Each structure stands twice: as C-alpha cells, then as structure tokens.
Amino acid sequence: MKNKKMKIARVEKDLSQEQLAELVGATRQTISMIEAGKFNPSLQLCLSICRALDRTLNDLFWEEDEK
Fold this sequence. Notes:
Blueprint lengths: L3 H9 L4 H8 L3 H9 L6 H11 L3 H5 L6
Helix pairs in contact: 2-3
C-alpha cells in the first residue's frame, strides 16, 4: 500500500526525498520505497520522519479501513 500521506506531507514541507532522507538519517531510496509501499520502516525511522514532517504516527502511518 502506497504511503500517499507521507508523500503529501513531504511535498507540503517543500522537501525532496533526498532532503527528507538527510534529515532522518536514511537514504533517498529508503524514502522512495516507503512512499511506494515497498518497505516497512522501523518504529525509530517512522518517529524520525514524523518529527521532520511535523506530523504524528497516526497522521502518516495509520491505515484507514478501505471499504
């Protein structure tokens, strides 16, 4: 499942994948894979991303039930 919420939050902060990766101590490829839904980040990385994007875990990583 793609993480559209994370990508939207990143774009709203006017950050590239590379810039976000640098802020959270990851690679651009990792950020890309998270946004594409191809990588499940550790809790620590999730928290770092949330802090960098001024969002909560629920804002970025909680999956809504799709009906």
